[in-house]
Amino acid sequence: MSEPDADNSIKPHIKKILAHLSNKPGVYQMLDKDGETLYVGKAKNLNNRVKSYFVKKHLSPKTELLVTYIEDIHTTVTDTETEALLLENNLIKKYKPRFNVIFRDDKSYPFVFLSSGDFPRLAYHRGAKKEKGEYFGPFPSTSAVRQSLSLMQKVFQVRQCEDSYFANRSRPCLQYQIKRCTAPCVDYISKEDYAKDVDNIRLFYRGKSDKVIARLQKKMDKASENLEFELAARYRDQIKQMRHVMQQQVISGTASDLDVVGVAYASGTCCILLVFIRNGMIVGNKTYYPKVPKHSDLDEIINSFLTFYYLSGAEVPKQVFLEKLPEDHKTIAVALSEHKQSKVSLKVASRGQTKEWQEFANKNAQHSLRARLNSKSNFTKRLLELQKSLQLESMPKHVECFDISHTQGNQTVGSCVVFDENGPKKSDYRIFNISGIEPGDDYAAMEQVLTRRYKRLKADEKAMPDLVIVDGGKGQLAKAEDVFNQLDITNIPLIGVSKGSDRKVGMEQIWFPGQHRPLLLDEDSKALHFIQHIRDESHRFAITKHRHRRTKSGTKSLLEEIPGVGAKRRQSLLRHFGGWQEIEKASAKDIAKAPGISLSLAQKIYDYLHS
């Protein structure tokens, strides 16, 4: 499906923001000229959702009015759409944006309530917790609670009727007939057996649901062996539902007020992102881009930020969490404590809820850093230095970079990414499916890609690039030269980029046609940062399209490409989640719940599927 036609009246600075949105789930905030939040929304795909506001024909007058006020857009990336829903709810409560619908009863999330007594009832609850019993939650929505209660009726058949109704029954109701209740009202089940079902429900809602899942999986396997496929499919769907309603969230928790510091550093630019936790919920974040002197280490950056930010009038919480404590953390903690006039602790988020919040902060710092690196002002500086370093006649405003991707020679694809003075120009990206070559012959693949690309551009009389970059050393560059000679292209600068002998970032070698020694740029060179950026983007685009081709071909599972995921672990993942789509939707933490999958391997799987 093609993107809707963009509105030509979009403000230039808004266009820059729209050009570099993430394709992941998350929350977006629309702000006015005074920095006030106009609207908060969630999205399964931030890029698609936010861009939908800026089209020629809007669905409602409200949206058209909203767009006229927008001067800035802030986005926060989450692992799942459910996490985005919870964060959206928190931000709406905090800012009360005038373009959001705010309900009067929007004061708390719904809970599941388990009453006390010999035969407890399981019910939906929202509001004050006055009745004696246990409360499980919060859940992201009313539908999630209803879904879980329906599931519990099917699996454990615990009553959900009111106590007054239960006390006056003389015979079983319809719920017993349809196998949704064991009829404790007429003593069809003993207190002991009923208590076992209630204990299983407690385990389930406390996140210790492995035994429950295992029970359903055994039933599913048995039904499948007996060729009862409809019954097996029903058990499979129940497993999916259980995993969905019990999906752990990082947006809400039980911790007190605290801040979490996320840091990302790349290509000479640093991003520090603060996540604010108040009353156990994420209520917002703030991003800083400090000017980092050459050869500064991370400790120095963190030390400077903590003292600058918290001693300059900002609210100081009782706890500040970081991924790694700086060398002077004790001194800083004392200074902050004296400033606040109460104890302040600097801690490493090593486990539990704070660990999840730390990962959330780090991920969004990386996302913000990528957006920063894609900004127009940054690109102009890099392109000017690129012109100087490569001794080009003029600043290159149209640069193309090529890469090849395959798995053991199969489903080979070539990528072409295009950067201009505004950054990546994704509408001009191209992918080439390679055929007619020996499997694994990257030189022949590069030759085919370049020939097809520039033969078409010449035939259509379209604008040619100001600079062409191929991912590879002298061999790939030689093939590129041959193609240019065959097509009689003589006025386009051409370079190759290899990772050097140690294959370390910052040690890239720049190869020129006819030269036997590569150019080595300083690690903090803006020209090198540009080359690294476009090379990494071409590599990412090639791998992504290659995986899509693998999936479409149906010959192998993408899981087969991940080191450490063998046949048994693939089977474990598919049985645990009930299907491929559920694995794609899961967070790294949820993937780690599958038998035989460690958290580190789960993170590799998640990163691979979402890269």
UniProtKB/TrEMBL annotation:
The organism of origin for this protein: Kangiella japonica
Stored HAMAP family: UvrC
The protein's assembly and partners: Interacts with UvrB in an incision complex.
Domain UVR: 210-245
Annotated family: Belongs to the UvrC family.
UniProt keyword list: Cytoplasm, DNA damage, DNA excision, DNA repair, Excision nuclease, SOS response
Function summary: The UvrABC repair system catalyzes the recognition and processing of DNA lesions. UvrC both incises the 5' and 3' sides of the lesion. The N-terminal half is responsible for the 3' incision and the C-terminal half is responsible for the 5' incision.
Protein name: UvrABC system protein C
Domain (UvrC family homology region profile) ranges: 260-484
CDD domains to which the protein is assigned, alphabetical: GIY-YIG_UvrC_Cho
Domain GIY-YIG intervals: 23-101
InterPro entries, alphabetized: GIY-YIG_endonuc, GIY-YIG_endonuc_sf, GIY-YIG_UvrC_Cho, Hlx-hairpin-Hlx_DNA-bd_motif, RuvA_2-like, UVR_dom, UVR_dom_sf, UvrABC_protein_C
